[in-house]
Amino acid sequence: MSAIRTVLGDVPPGDLGVCDAHDHLFFGSPLLPGQELRSVAAARAELAAFREQGGQAVVQWTPYGLGRRAADLPPLSRESGVHVVAATGLHQAVHYDEDTLAGLRGRLAEVFVSELTTGIGVSGVRAGLIKVAGGFHGLDAHARWTMAAAAEAHHATGATITVHLELGTGALDVLDLLCGELGVPPHRVVLGHLNRSPDLVVHRQAAESGCYLAFDGPSRTNHATDWRMPDAVRALADAGFGDRLLLGADTTTAAARSVGGGPGMPYLLRRVRPRLVHAVGEDLVGRVLTENPGRAFAVEWR
Question: Any idea what the CATH number is for the domain that residue 27 is in?
């Protein structure tokens, strides 16, 4: 039977509820000095604010080595009443030092499988997805290595693979590798950040493969794509791909949290949801926030 692997155990997809399909409760990278998401109190407040807006589930895409604080996730989920899904996987090479990467050579898929089936470190918290990343309009050797390991772990466990697309680019290259060369079923792949590259043709081609398409996070400075996102969602819905769409807030810095004065997780339901209801209707937006993530992240675990 298909189930979503949360930090408190496996749950049926119908129990997930209104879901932020891509976000971070904890995250730290040398690329974002001083903006780490490390505070348990701030994570608790963010979940409470999300819950107040009607949120019921958060899928955390923070992968290996970037400050997941896995042991803190179960009590946060229990206290807030919000389902939380943790991730294994590996981000782009620039987020790690050479010693960390060297220590994973030859055993990356093994690490992914262990964190999906046994647990993350000593926490015992099992990951519910595999997160990897592409490059800007292409795939370097690191991306190919991590995606090969992710595919191996998928074949061993059934887990969904989520992909950070750099500025929303490289979607078709990712699908060629994961679903073509490596044999991952497209419906087990989630492409992230498609809102950052509003290429409707590429969106349509990616959707035709059968993968899920995530529109996650407000525009960054000088990347003014927010106003185009509803049109992209409507174009996909009109083409019959409404069941492949996901939404997320992707909070990656302390300043971006709602408790820090930024949009944070509540922005997804407070501002993005009504904007999309205006574009595509309440029924579709409701399904995108509930039924779609339920299917995207529920797998028959092996």
Answer: 3.20.20.140
Distance CA 196, CA 193 (A): 6
Q: What residues make up the domain containing 180?
A: 4-297
> According to the annotation, is 22 in a ligand binding site?
yes
Residue 83 known to bind ligand: no
Q: Any binding-site annotation on 250?
A: yes
CA–CA separation, 107 and 287 (whole Å): 38
The response to whether 238 counts as a known ligand-binding position is no
Residue type, 35: Q
pLDDT digits (tens, 9 = 90+) for 157-182: 999 999 999 999 999 999 999 999 99
CB of 46 closer than 8 Å to CB of 259 = yes
Would you say residue 143 lies in a domain? yes
Instruction: Examine residue 66 and state whether it is found in any structural domain, yes or no.
Output: yes
Q: Is 231 annotated as a binding residue?
A: no
Instruction: Quote the pLDDT of residue 223.
Output: 67
The torsion angles phi and psi of 231, rounded to 5 degrees, stand at -65, -40
According to the annotation, is 24 in a ligand binding site?
yes
The pLDDT score that the predictor gives to residue 222 is 63
Q: What is the mean pLDDT of residues 98-125?
A: 97
Closest by Cα among 17, 25, 81, 47 to 289? 17
Q: Give the count of domains, the chain.
A: 1
Output the pTM of the full model.
Answer: 0.97
DSSP per position, 197-265: S--HHHHHHHHHHT-EEEEESPPPTT---GGGHHHHHHHHHHTT-GGGEEEE----SGGGSGGGTS-TT
Residue 104 maps to a domain: yes
Q: Is 196 helix (H, G, I), strand (E, B) or coil?
A: helix
Summarised one tens digit per residue, pLDDT across range 182-220 is 999 999 999 999 999 999 999 999 999 999 999 998 876
> In the predicted model, is pLDDT for residue 260 greater than 90?
no
Q: Is residue 302 assigned to a domain?
A: no
Does residue 221 have a pLDDT over 70?
no
